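Let us practice reading a record.
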Amino acid sequence: MNSVEIVGNLVRKPFCKEYESDEKTVRVAKYTIAAARPNNKDEADFIDCTAFGNAATYASKYMDKGDLIAIEGNLHSSSFMDKDGNTKYGMTVYVSRNQNYTSRKNKELIQNAEQNEKKINEALDTLNSSCNDNDIPEEEFAYCGEVPFE
């Protein structure tokens, strides 16, 4: 059985193109996924993917660089001759189904949260720089009464 499932991040936005023949138009999307290796998260494998039809339409509309996606498909090997006459081999996943785990709504929420955090940090910096310990009267720190517990 030739079947693969891969989860990884898109290296760049999918490249989409439509091919027309006398009978029909076929949409094709090509993209690369960086999938972390299970035993070493600092290393990744870069997997070329090709999607057709609805999977290509989905890729072009809903997937963008850096998104965490999952794909299902099968491996397709190919070979070609380079300009020096050497045979080169390659593997591509022909995608039958893809799913984006990083939705646009989530991206907007993350961006808004980051902007709000930046504004809060700027306000705190302004407040901290305008506040001087010498401006606070010493009696504010004076001990009043007994200690409630010992």
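A brief commentary: The CA atoms of residues 77 and 110 lie 39 Å apart.
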